[in-house]
Amino acid sequence: MANILFITCNLKSRERSRSLTIGNEFLTRYMGNYPEARIEMLDLYRDHIQRIDVDVLSGWEKLRGGDSFDSLADDEQRKIGRIGRLADQFVAADKYVFVTPMWNLGFPAELKMYIDTVCIVGKTFTYTDRGPVGLLSGMGKKCLHIHSCGGFHSGSADDHSVPYLKSIMGFMGVEDFKSIMVEGTDALPHKAEEFMNKALVESREAADVF
Asked: What's the CATH superfamily of 3-56+84-209?
């Protein structure tokens, strides 16, 4: 039974969000194909994502210095504990689906905050004499990225969204990465429906083989 971590990062409702509409199409098809799969939903706006702040850095420094977790200040324990739970949830998943919009050539800040809670040395990567090595490699993990943007940026130097997510997933050892993009819906509004329909077909096809 596959464990799917379905991660969204969008303030809009599904009815108003192109990426969430496509993501829901994928999820509906996937659950119909694989009803035994376990789906964990993570909304990066609704669910508390602990950012790395001064308490986290202070607590980590103490732990590296040999202090016990129980000896940390209450805020340090609480925040580091939350990051640990998010990282453990990420490691436990077999497959990942990210559903995101493009904001100003990149992602909303909440996604970067989340990446910082799961890209953790000793959990998803480690340092070696050959450089950093992803700890999730060789496990058959997969990632699908469903992404929307109003202009045309795919493949250009100013796209800091899909290439970044692909890179950071590979850094942690998740090398089976695919993306579904709907773009140009604001640049060419008269073609928005055509672009959406194409992405919806791609989402259904992806759900059949994911």
From this structure: Flavodoxin domain (3.40.50.360)
